[in-house]
Write a structure and sequence with these properties.
The complex is a heterodimer of chains A (244) and B (784). With 244 residues, chain A is α/β, with parallel strands linked by helices. Chain A has 6 helices and 11 strands. Chain A starts with a strand and ends with a helix. The chains are: A alpha/beta (244), B alpha+beta (784).
Chain lengths: 244, 784
């Protein structure tokens, strides 16, 4: 079967494109970094889009705000409306939210810390795996280690609306043991109504291999360090969804 | 684009300064021109040139002959440091050093390392000073043709009392490092942190950066052979007046009253632009390698365009012609000599064949759109490499500089009066400690010992996805070189400030040995070092002696640690920072800060400091020592601060390093930690708690007489003689002990892991939760 093509969008200030491309490639996708100066129209040729982490456009105005208005994201929005899969990771999640692709959801500064926090966190698949095609190949209730590395990662909005998200299975991942950034419903990831756009705040791609996590999971020592970690399995699930 | 300087500003730059009269006259001239040059140096300029210099030339000399650029006070001593070994690919003398990191799929990789200080700027404007320190070191690594992959920050502050200026400086520095490193996307891999009153008015902000590069793609900080007629291409931020005189500033004494004036000498960071420049440069490296083009590449640091272009061309044996009218500037009305020497951040200089220039310009300006990323940022041709070794700078058709390039770049020397040898430290008997529990909790809560987690969490430690052991979980951080190869590199930084207060020489030697132990404790083989020598005013005989002693200590230890080469551990990069003292005259404690690089063939075979199994056997390597000078315990108990430091037995050091590295490689060792700040008991406590402070495996140690016979219990438990504590799988005990002994190491059984307390038989039993509370808390408020 051919390898599905995935565009990893790079904006000025993006800083996680290398590990994002590698995680996708290792999971069987043909992933490429597409620069902001490349013609946006060529994005239509890709089967799916991953928006990686960083500080696109210096997070001017608000994290993700400028990139959300870029021509490339306009093409991504158009393709998402046509049902293609979109995965936003950290700053990519902020861009997806700013672009309105996951509804009236804001991502605000961490509380109570009020500053950037970096640590390994555990998240739990809190909706049915098939609710979002990107997670469809994960086992129900799957627990994944991810790397939180953000100062503005608190999912927030109208409390009734968030209750609705919960009921509708759109809070895809939840922090285990409470949200270290103060997110409503301890949300670590939110998807759109159609389930084809997923915004995750902690990074799966930065701990996508066993060697990234062996320091705190001694059972991984001695195992193939380059095999996908639990976070890496998310990219395998994305690949599965694209291969249909 | 704002470019042309007015005729009067050009004339000002080209104006000849009369070097004549008495010392007093020349001092007045230097003061009125803000030239950091002494009367003898001014006369030397006239002598070397055979004429009087222009204003632009005089400023160029002031920078190139500053301590920061010329190492004029330290050069005489630096020659004693070992700099060669089979692992050195590029030694000292370029923007950064390169060590052999290992072969992947038939291609040899180098690990690039650079080490700098940004002490004075960080004291004056902590956020910007620390951020630009990170920015500068990343460029040094980038300019070797490398992907920049990690940074580390050794920090020294005054006691962090709530509301104090020292606390403000500490918080601002950490914010600045985080803001820059996190945005640019370079993970923080290591660091250390000490507090001492001598850093109150003069903090130390050292910074180390690592890169990876294929050996055949290393770029050099010089115009290559056949480089005549090459274009000089300036890349980056539009030049402004920021940082004008920065190198001279780094070599001056800080005065609180002048701190406002000093602020203009500090540069302005732009990690966002740097992020894009780095990516564009990576694309340039790939093109250059694919097309087999020979180039030179150099960071703009001290002295801006002047410093970089003169050194790049002189190192290749060429001269240069610079056209200041071609330099993209941020504002009108800058005098040409300011444009030439301002230290605006985020700039680099290429020397490339003219046929390649259009491709390089298009890559930066069009594909990576520099002009859209920051106002007037771009790549632009600003000059030519010439065959005659003349350094010529033009502005508006006038020559503002025209001198033999070597005169500018050839270092001067300063020799100062060397003070008498340091008085020997006092022999102080080890005290009787009756409340070991109370002492341990006080030691764990000491600012030099307590958990660094509140600080480390501010830094991105995982960007790039290459991190195997992040900062704070082990004695060294570990990153893989290139997926999917399991090859990796470890990094540690060290330099005990309390030891420095007692003996400049022994503290420096301990720094080398501890740095080597730290990379060994994760399973890496130490292969090379960098140093940052932070000392006081060299014109003060006492401080000058400390500098000389410190270098002697580094040289002695580095030559003696023969773990990877008979030549010892080579220094491949470094920096000297002098004049670190308050205006009151009180100098910082002598601070040789050392970074050590370790090589790891298989990242699977690494361990952290945290216990992973109950029932593991605990061993100590390295003899305990009754001397408690410089220990945290001495501070906690209020003992005389000048007691003798523990000694170093290099034979034991080499044997123990090998025993630990081999033991980790065989899988015998489950956890390892070096004994340093706080001593053995704090070391074991940290192994129980782990980097997050949530570990649940305790330890039971035998009574002190069993593992440290003849040593006072207080010194056995809290003495800071170096060594390791290792946890060994029960069925590997025999193989570990046998292998270690055959290497000449002396592993001594300490106890075993298990339970939920830290127990010393007959002495104390401390629940891990109690230890964690003491250890985790102290820095939370400082970095909240």
């Amino acid at each position: 079967m051919s390898r599905p093509s995935v565009a990893v969008l790079v904006f000025p200030g993006t800083n996680s494109e290398v590990e994002t491309v590698d995680a996708c490639v290792d999971a069987g996708m043909d992933a490429r970094a597409v620069l902001w100066s490349d013609p946006p129209s060529q994005l239509r040729d890709y089967a799916a889009y991953v928006l990686p982490g960083g500080f696109a456009y210096e997070d001017r105005v608000r994290a993700g705000a400028i990139a959300a208005k870029s021509p490339s994201v306009a093409v991504v929005a158009e393709q998402a409306a046509a049902g293609k899969l979109v995965l936003g990771l950290c700053n990519g999640a902020q861009i997806v939210a700013e672009a309105g692709l996951i509804g009236p959801v804001a991502i605000a500064h961490n509380l109570p810390a009020g500053h950037f926090q970096c640590k390994i966190v555990e998240v739990e698949l809190s909706a049915s795996p098939a609710r979002c095609p990107i997670t469809a190949a994960l086992p129900p209730g799957a627990r994944l280690k991810m790397a939180m590395a953000h100062g503005e990662g608190r999912f927030t909005g109208n409390p009734q609306f968030f209750d609705g998200l919960e009921r509708d299975g759109r809070i895809t991942f939840r922090f285990v043991g409470g949200a270290p950034n103060g997110a409503m419903h301890a949300a670590a990831a939110v998807c759109n109504e159609g389930g084809n756009v997923l915004a995750i705040m902690p990074h799966p791609e930065r701990v996508a291999w066993n060697y990234n996590l062996a320091f705190e999971e001694p059972r991984l020592r001695g195992m193939d360090p380059m095999r996908p970690s639990t976070s890496g399995s998310l990219f395998a699930s994305l690949a599965r969804a694209l291969k249909g | 684009m704002a470019r042309a300087a007015t005729a009067d500003l050009i004339a000002l730059s080209a104006q000849v300064l009369p070097i004549e009269g008495s010392d007093e006259d020349l001092k007045r001239l230097a003061d009125s021109e803000a030239l950091a040059l002494t009367p003898p140096e001014l006369r030397a300029i006239r002598e070397r040139l055979g004429r009087e210099p222009t204003r632009a030339e005089a400023h160029a000399f002031a920078i190139q002959w500053s301590e920061h650029c010329s190492y004029k006070s330290s050069r005489a001593f630096l020659g004693s440091l070992p700099t060669q070994s089979p692992d050195v690919l590029v030694g000292v003398g370029e923007d950064a050093g390169v060590l052999r990191a290992g072969e992947i799929d038939g291609t040899e990789y180098g690990v690039v390392v650079a080490h700098e200080s940004h002490n004075h700027p960080s004291q004056v404007v902590p956020f910007e000073g620390a951020a630009t320190g990170v920015g500068g070191i990343l460029r040094d690594v980038l300019c070797m043709g490398a992907r920049v992959v990690a940074s580390a920050d050794p920090l020294r502050f005054g006691p962090p009392l709530a509301g104090s200026h020292a606390a403000y400086v500490a918080a601002g520095v950490v914010d600045g490092i985080a803001a820059y490193g996190n945005a640019v996307g370079v993970p923080n891999l290591a660091g250390d942190l000490y507090f001492h009153p001598s850093f109150r008015d003069n903090c130390l902000v050292n910074v180390v950066a690592l890169g990876f590069v294929q050996r055949d793609r290393i770029l050099h900080s010089r115009v290559p052979e056949l480089g005549e007629g090459y274009d000089l291409v300036l890349v980056g931020k539009a030049t402004d007046a920021s940082g004008f005189g920065g190198a001279a500033f780094a070599s001056l004494t800080l005065d609180a009253q002048e701190s406002h004036a000093n602020k203009s000498a500090v540069q302005v960071p732009d990690p966002f632009l740097k992020n894009v420049i780095m990516r564009a440069s990576y694309a340039a490296f790939d093109t250059i390698a694919a097309q087999g083009i020979k180039v030179g590449f150099k960071d703009l640091g001290a002295g801006g365009i002047m410093g970089s272009s003169s050194e790049l061309c002189a190192a290749g044996g060429f001269g240069a012609e610079i056209d200041l009218d071609a330099v993209p500037v941020a504002l009108r009305g800058l005098a040409p000599f300011v444009v030439l020497m301002a230290e605006t951040q985020e700039r680099m200089l290429w020397a490339v064949p003219p046929a390649f220039t259009p491709q390089l310009l298009s890559l930066y300006n069009e594909r990576f759109t520099l002009p859209e990323v920051a106002a007037n940022a771009r790549a632009a041709v600003i000059g030519k490499v010439t065959r005659d070794r003349q350094y010529v700078v033009r502005a508006g058709g006038m020559r503002v500089c025209d001198l033999p390039i070597e005169v500018l770049t050839q270092p001067v020397r300063a020799t100062w009066k060397l003070g008498p040898p340091q008085a020997p430290a006092l022999a102080v008997p080890a005290p009787l400690v009756t409340d070991v529990t109370g002492a341990l909790l006080a030691v764990l809560a000491h600012p030099d010992v307590c958990s660094r987690r509140p600080l480390i969490e501010r830094y991105d430690t995982v960007v790039r996805g290459a991190t195997a052991i992040p900062s704070g979980y082990a004695d060294a951080g570990v990153i893989v070189i290139e997926r999917p190869s399991p090859r990796a590199v470890a990094l540690s930084v060290d330099g005990n400030a309390r030891f420095g207060a007692i003996s400049a020489k022994l503290a420096a030697a301990h720094a080398v040995v501890e740095a080597a132990r730290n990379v060994a404790a994760v399973g890496a083989v130490p292969i090379g070092l960098t140093d940052c020598l932070n000392y006081g005013n060299p014109e003060d005989p006492v401080a000058y002696r400390e500098l000389a002693d410190g270098i002697e200590g580094l040289a002695e230890a580095a030559r003696a640690v023969t773990i990877s080469s008979d030549a010892g551990l080579p220094f491949v990069s470094g920096n000297v920072s002098l004049y670190n003292h308050a205006a009151s005259g009180s100098a910082i404690v002598p601070s040789a800060v050392v970074a050590c690089i370790g090589r790891i063939d298989d990242v699977r075979k690494t361990v952290t400091m945290q216990f992973v199994e109950s029932g593991d056997a605990l061993y100590v390597l390295g003899a305990r020592d009754d001397r408690l000078g410089g220990s945290v315990l001495a501070g906690v108990l209020g003992l005389t601060p000048s007691g003798e430091l523990p000694g170093i037995d290099y034979q034991e050091v080499n044997a123990s390093l090998r025993a630990v590295i081999d033991g980790i490689g065989r899988g015998d060792v489950h956890a390892a930690h070096d004994i340093s700040d706080g001593g053995l008991l704090a070391c074991v406590a940290e192994m129980c708690l782990g980097g997050d402070g949530v570990g649940e495996i305790g330890a039971v140690l035998a009574s002190c007489e069993q593992w440290a016979p003849g040593i006072a219990p207080s010194a056995a438990l809290f003495g800071e003689a170096g060594g390791f504590v290792v946890a060994i799988a029960p069925d590997s005990r025999a193989s570990f002990e046998e292998a270690a002994r055959s290497l000449g190491a002396r592993p001594i059984r300490l106890g075993q892991t298990g339970g939920s307390s830290l127990v010393v038989t007959g002495v104390c039993e401390i629940p891990l939760g109690t230890a964690a509370a003491a250890w985790m808390r102290p820095l939370q408020d400082l970095f909240a």
